[in-house]
Design goal:
Layout lengths: L2 E4 L4 E4 L1 E4 L8 H13 L4 E3 L8 H12 L8 E6 L1 E2 L7 E2 L3 H15 L6 E4 L8 H14 L5 E4 L3 H8 L6 E7 L6 H7 L15 H7 L3 E5 L18 H14 L3 H10 L5 E5 L4 H8 L8 H10 L6
Parallel strand pairs: 3-4, 3-12, 4-5, 5-8, 8-9, 9-10, 10-11, 11-12
Antiparallel strand pairs: 1-2, 6-7
Helix pairs in contact: 1-2, 1-10, 2-3, 3-4, 8-9, 8-11
GO molecular function: oxidoreductase activity
Pfam family, one: Aldo_ket_red
InterPro entries: AKR, AKR_Detox_Biosynth, NAD(P)_OxRdtase_dom_sf, NADP_OxRdtase_dom
Length: 310
Amino acid sequence: MEYIEFGTQKAQVSKVMLGLMRIDSMSVEEVSELVQGALEEGINALDIADVYGLGKCESILGEVFKANPGLRDKFFLQTKFGIRKEEPGFTWYDFSKDYLVKAADACLERLGVDHVDCLLLHRPDVLMIGEDVAEVMDGLMASGKILDWGVSNQNPATMNRIARYAKTPMVTTQMQLSCAFAPAFDAFFNVNMENDEAIMREGGVFEYCLEHDMVIQTWSAFQYGYFGGSFLGSDKYPELNAVLERMAAEQGVTPAAVALAWILRFPAKMQAVIGTTKLHRVKDSAKACDVTLTERDWYEIYQAAGKVMP
């Protein structure tokens, strides 16, 4: 496993991060086995959110920490807030000052901890008051309830709407990226072109993070489209799978490890969030840092997913 220096605390955090979105149907014992197995592979970073399982995922992880004294301190713990789903069938985003303060405290209570290492604003609230959001995040930092903060699924303009008022730095952003879903790279290559790939859908967030030395966390590392399904082994991506399988065989790993290595090859502080609940897949993914991809390898994988270079 390889590690990056994260945020103001300069914590050493694994490049592969275990996402816990799908643990709401698992037992405390099963989740304990999953996270401790990840730790044995060198994965010391956990990502969760208050909306996952409508709070149940955080509660289960809190029970895991309670059942295993000292385990929480071995992990970089990150959660996210700002999405509301109290009413069945209705979702909205709320970055109001009162709600964020209460939601942050609720996260800590469910997790059974006095602080998290990083807290992310989950999806952008168009009605937010940037000064208010910055005040909340600064206040949480000052209180010691969070050690760092960032955003998720937001473009640079939205990020600046908050960051310009904050006294503490925004240190990370989380964005969807995979071999088969890379609109940020599509727009980068197709600048000033007339095709759909030229459309900048994320506002240049990767370049923004490079400029501001922010950590880039990516989610849905094996998905195509918006939860369209896994491209690994899919007959929708025969050429991509052939390339991944060949490179995996050459380096003694699985195609999943190569797919993650492709993400981590971007020249920034990168973390790839994996959402599996299967320990053997966690072990496969942890080997991503053992993979060496040349620049040509990276471009071959990109084009094997159906991308055409201008």
